[in-house]
Specification:
527 residues; alpha/beta; 5-stranded mixed sheet; two-stranded antiparallel ribbon; 9 strands; 6% strand; globular
Length: 527
């Protein structure tokens, strides 16, 4: 049935006329969700009337405000009556330069898939569709929905490349996730805009149905609450797509992350990197400006490198993470399987610890002023710091005591060593430079585990000193020593790599002497 008092959003008269239809569509797209709750035409968008008795600042009217600003953002607040929980009104705001943000996202993620995104000037239809997506997302907030960063994890990665499936179902089950666009799709998949853009999905429809359905059979709110809880439990047991995580992607569960896609970050982001490489192959053409200007190139290049960093950190979150369960009769937390964590370590080995030099071609670096040596070093070092942090090692170690299927600490250290400690035999000397830096960085963090400093924090020091972690790290240091001795023996005496391994060996021995004292030589690695 049609409600007596539908939800009405008025469009700010300052809004550029060409965007009004897309803003209205973003509002009224939610009618599919309200239909699932039993209402027809429940939410409507209207242009602001020429009525002197109405004011945009009047709290009786919900408005989508247009803000002429360089800020690249939009937001959807709501005012709630604390007595009843009723949402009374909302003043959604979108800043003019959110269009710049949308352009960067779409070119970097979907430029290889959509030829319309291969220019710095999008046509009105494409930009309008992007604005419509933002409008729908912010309206979702204003009608009561929070971010659900777990929504995209409900979609199997390979389905994101299945044209028929993804165009029918969308790449995420909720527009309230930060799922952005389908960066997993490849050019040969020939997926249209319908399979690249987010849309109102099954989670959104379920959430609106749960929150808005009229239930006249209940006179007692406590009985209604019990029935609703049972309904949610039953639904979630049968359909994992309806799962909600309210941690804004900041918890330990790798399924709940901002701006990721699919049920496996490693597989999804491998595809994402393939598309980033395609963007880099064409970035000079797509951002070309007259008169030797490179501001557009710099803007998009910054976004490409930021996207690569997101892919890296999304994968890293799979290491030492844990699954969160919020259904009755289930463990509150489950441990990630060893195989998934190993896959994440191997991904980092391929895509970060082998320096991503493809991301820094000379013809782009020379026009943008980026310093590849510094940036690659800093990114590699920061991830090594995460992998060998006291908290990470303790998490891996303590988890291994609770589950036979979890990652054993010695296996973890060996896998991280394999991913990071590459031989110095690359034909590109710049790559070998990064490998030498990684060797030194790695050994420095291992030393920190042998001799924790006060800057690591009292809790970290206590966890390490009272557990077997130092024993595992001590054993690992023996492995490093053996490897360094082998590489030193295989190196040509007097060259740079020989000197590098000689210094590493000396440093390993100093670490042992500092920890074991003068008997370090008697308990070295040749037992």
């Amino acid at each position: 049935s049609e409600p007596k008092n539908p939800i009405i959003y008025y469009i700010d008269p300052a809004t550029p006329k060409k965007w009004i239809p897309y803003l209205k569509a973003g509002v009224e797209d939610w009618n599919t969700a309200f239909e699932a709750a039993g209402f027809k035409n429940a939410i409507i968008a209207k242009e602001w009337p020429n009525d002197p008795n109405m004011s945009l600042d009047d709290a009786r009217y919900s408005v989508i405000r247009y803000l002429s600003s360089e800020t690249e953002n939009a937001y959807g607040p709501r005012i709630v009556d604390p007595r009843s929980g009723e949402i009374m009104e909302s003043h959604i705001c979108w800043y003019h330069n959110v269009m710049n943000l949308l352009k960067k996202w779409y070119m970097v993620q979907c430029g290889p898939l959509d030829k319309r995104a291969r220019t710095m000037t999008f046509d009105d239809k494409l930009m309008g569709s992007l604005i419509q997506f933002v409008s729908s997302h912010e309206v979702g907030h204003s009608i009561g929905l929070r971010h659900n960063m777990a929504a995209s994890s409900a979609t199997p990665v390979e389905k994101l490349r299945d044209k028929a499936w993804v165009e029918a179902n969308g790449h995420t089950v909720s527009i309230m996730d930060y799922a952005r666009f389908n960066y997993v799709a490849q050019p040969e998949d020939r997926i249209s805009e319908k399979g690249l853009f987010p849309r109102i999905g099954v989670y959104d429809k379920w959430a609106i149905q749960w929150g808005y359905r009229y239930r006249p059979e209940f006179k007692d709110p406590y009985k209604e609450k019990d029935v609703l809880r049972a309904e949610v439990t039953k639904k979630l047991r049968g359909d994992h797509r309806l799962w909600f995580v309210g941690d804004e992607g900041k918890g330990f569960d790798p399924r709940s992350q901002s701006e990721d896609l699919g049920d496996n970050n490693m597989k999804a982001n491998e595809y994402g990197i393939k598309n980033l490489k395609r963007v880099m192959e064409n970035i000079l053409t797509w951002t070309a400006q007259p008169d030797g200007e490179y501001t557009d190139l710099t803007t998009i290049y910054n976004s490409v490198r930021a996207q690569h960093l997101k892919y890296t950190l999304q994968v890293q979150k799979n290491i030492g993470g844990r699954y969160t369960n919020n259904l009755p009769d289930l463990k509150v937390h489950d441990y990630l399987p060893r195989s998934l964590q190993k896959e994440a370590v191997e991904w980092l080995g391929r895509n970060l610890f082998v320096a991503p030099l493809w991301l820094y071609p000379d013809e782009v670096v020379s026009r943008t002023g980026v310093k590849p040596v510094d940036e690659i070093r800093d990114r590699q070092s920061s991830v090594v710091a995460l992998l060998l942090a006291p908290g990470m090692l303790y998490n891996i170690y303590s988890t291994s005591l609770c589950s036979s299927e979890s990652y054993a600490l010695d296996d973890y250290l060996n896998d991280v060593f394999t991913a990071i400690w590459k031989p110095l035999n690359d034909p590109n000397e710049l790559e070998n430079n990064f490998r030498r830096q990684l060797h030194r960085t790695y050994l420095g963090f291992v030393e920190g585990m042998i001799k924790p400093s006060s800057k690591d924090g009292a809790n970290a020091n206590l966890a390490i000193s009272r557990s077997d972690i130092q024993l595992f790290v001590e054993q690992h240091l023996d492995k490093i020593e053996e490897s360094v001795k082998e590489q030193l023996a295989a190196s040509k005496e007097g060259d740079l790599n020989y000197r590098h391994y000689a210094v590493l060996l000396r440093n390993v021995q100093k670490i042992k002497e500092g920890y074991y004292g003068k008997d370090a030589d008697t308990r070295s690695s040749d037992k």
